[in-house]
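As the next step, I selected for study one protein, both as residues and as discrete backbone shape codes, as given directly below:
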Amino acid sequence: VRAEKRLKILIPIVLLIIMVILYFTFHTYREVLIVLSSIPVALVGGAYSLYFFDVNFSVAVAVGFIALFGIAVETGVLMLVYLNNALYNKVRKKKDSGEPLKDSDIEEAVYEGAALRLRPKLMTVLVDIFGLLPLLLATGTGSDVMKPIAIPFVFGLVTSTFFVLIVLPAMYALVREYELRIKGKVVIE
């Protein structure tokens, strides 16, 4: 009970710290919100796994969720960095050639950036999943403590991966296309 009370204070603090660090990284709330959108998706995967494995919420499960949130944010940040780099290169090429930037250029840059991130993201996720697979299958001493940490982490990582690889680039493209329509240019910091 004491640990759960402490976690009710620590989890919001952790999320606030993540938001502040993301803001100092990207210098815009727009990209912070894009990255943070992966947390609820990861939460859904972790919550379904708890239901599927018939595990109650506990301190160990909360630790698994905290680790999951960290990895979900990290992968979202890396995807956004690749997308920003690809878009920056596209904007620079368009500026050098004197052509105006179009929505199709943004979509092409997003596709290039997301494709560059596909293999590293899948490698990271598969290593995490295969590394925790023995914990998921364990039945021996200590498995009752370690299994609840691994369950939400592994299954939340699966849903977060699909989100970061498919939905996050699409969200990014929509936001950047909207920015192009409103401001007439794309600003990359």
User: Anything to note?
Assistant: The chain has a mean pLDDT of 87. The helical segments are 2-26, 29-36, 38-52, 59-97, 103-137, 143-183. The chain has six helices and no strands. The two ends are 45 Å apart (CA to CA).
